[in-house]
Design a protein that fits this description.
Layout: E1 3-8, E2 18-23, H1 32-41, H2 43-52, E3 60-64, E4 72-77, H3 88-105, E5 110-113, H4 125-142, E6 149-154, H5 157-171
Parallel strand pairs: 1-6, 2-4, 2-5, 5-6
Antiparallel strand pairs: 3-4
Helix pairs in contact: 3-4, 4-5
């Protein structure tokens, strides 16, 4: 069974097989986590992302990590929050499930996630944390030996506390 951990930090510094990028649909960089990952990985990342021809909301695509400590970047496009009744929870869950499925397919054993959609996309932190924890718990219980480590890397103490509470509530159900 994979270990789960919620930490405060900068995802671009994580030494894991793959970090997950909360990307926009172009995959060509943006603000927040996306911009930080693109800056840290270097210009070769944009070149590879151009070849991927974008990504739809709830799906995921993989690239090399380039200058990052992580060997790979899994890019996923989270939903923009529009009140919660426009499929946002299902799309956000799909981001986590698709990312883990892609990691599994490529034999990646350690993955670090940011708080997908909680920045400029406006997804409420508490609701996003619940979706993330539930989805990852379901994925890990279905294939308990596929991963060694899953990290949730939060930018500040508030997000870390919210994600830690959501993750800890799900750990007991595994």
């Amino acid at each position: 069974m994979a270990s789960w951990e919620v930490v405060t930090g900068n995802i671009v510094q994580c030494e894991v097989d793959a970090i997950v990028n909360a990307a926009n649909s172009s995959l060509l960089g943006g603000g927040g986590v996306d911009g930080a990952i693109h800056r840290a990985a270097g210009p070769d990342l944009v070149h590879e992302c151009r070849l991927l021809a974008g990504c739809k909301t709830g799906q995921a695509k993989i690239t090399k990590g380039y200058r990052l400590p992580a060997r790979h970047i899994i890019h996923t496009v989270g939903p923009v929050w529009r009140g919660g009744s426009n499929g946002e929870p299902e799309l956000l869950a799909s981001c986590y499930a698709s990312s883990l499925e892609l990691a599994r397919k490529h034999g990646l054993r350690s993955v670090a996630f940011p708080a997908i959609s909680t920045g400029i996309y406006g997804y409420p932190m508490l609701e996003a944390a619940e979706v993330a924890a539930l989805t990852v718990a379901e994925q890990l219980s279905a294939t308990p030996d596929d991963f060694e480590q899953v990290l949730f890397v939060c930018f500040d103490a508030r997000a870390t506390a919210i994600y830690a509470q959501a993750v800890n509530s799900r750990l007991g159900s595994l």
